[in-house]
């Protein structure tokens, strides 16, 4: 059994699972419907909501992961140290490689570039997939934001794909 997707719909958790070619949607342990093909879309939800759900899932995972990784580490001196930790240790745990390039304006904006982003390497380089690529980055934006949130950094994370499979994550730290 491969777990495909979790969503919240009208206060009820819906769990979508794939069983080979059979497809089943369950809610609170009861089967709602069964289809022949596995589709990762549930009718009635717009694309923006899917992206927010994926980002939210990544946020929670990022919080937990950074907590485990920094449990016995000394505290960070500043924001740059935290972002360097994200680029080296955090990224290596998740994607088995470090970020290829880190740039900053030293005023709270950081750009992390991964030239062979794992989630994009299997996609075609055509215009169609270049337009669809941000959907594949929502979870990772959530991972970064959740990790930074758990060490006390409130930020906004966005992603862009200039050319496949390169992607850039922009972190803008919200100063209060």
TrEMBL record:
Q: Signal peptide span per the entry?
A: none
Its family remark reads: Belongs to the TRAPP small subunits family. BET3 subfamily.
Q: What is one Gene Ontology biological process annotated in the Swiss-Prot or TrEMBL record?
A: nervous system development
Location(s) in or outside the cell: Endoplasmic reticulum; Golgi apparatus, cis-Golgi network
Q: Which organism is it from?
A: Aquarana catesbeiana (American bullfrog)
Q: Which UniProt keywords apply?
A: Endoplasmic reticulum, Golgi apparatus, Neurogenesis
Chain's role: Component of a transport protein particle (TRAPP) complex that may function in specific stages of inter-organelle traffic. Specifically involved in the early development of neural circuitry, likely by controlling the frequency and amplitude of intracellular calcium transients implicated in the regulation of neuron differentiation and survival.
GO cellular component terms, A-Z: cis-Golgi network; endoplasmic reticulum; trans-Golgi network; TRAPP complex
Q: What is this protein called?
A: Trafficking protein particle complex subunit 6B
């Amino acid at each position: 059994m491969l777990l495909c997707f979790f969503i919240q719909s009208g206060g009820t958790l819906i769990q979508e699972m794939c069983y080979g070619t059979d497809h089943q949607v369950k809610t609170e342990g009861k089967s709602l419907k069964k289809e022949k093909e596995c589709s990762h879309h549930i009718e009635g939800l717009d694309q923006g909501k899917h992206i927010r759900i994926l980002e939210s899932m990544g946020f929670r995972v990022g919080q937990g992961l950074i907590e485990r990784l920094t449990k016995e580490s000394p505290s960070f001196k500043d924001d740059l140290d935290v972002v360097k930790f994200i680029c080296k240790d955090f990224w290596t745990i998740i994607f088995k490689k470090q970020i290829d390039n880190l740039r900053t304006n030293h005023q709270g904006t950081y750009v992390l570039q991964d030239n062979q982003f794992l989630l994009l390497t299997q996609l075609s380089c055509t215009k169609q997939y270049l337009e669809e690529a941000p959907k594949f980055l929502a979870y990772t934006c959530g991972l970064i934001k959740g990790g930074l949130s758990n060490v006390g950094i409130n930020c906004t994370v966005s992603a862009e794909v200039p050319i496949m499979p390169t992607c850039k994550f922009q972190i803008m730290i919200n100063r209060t």
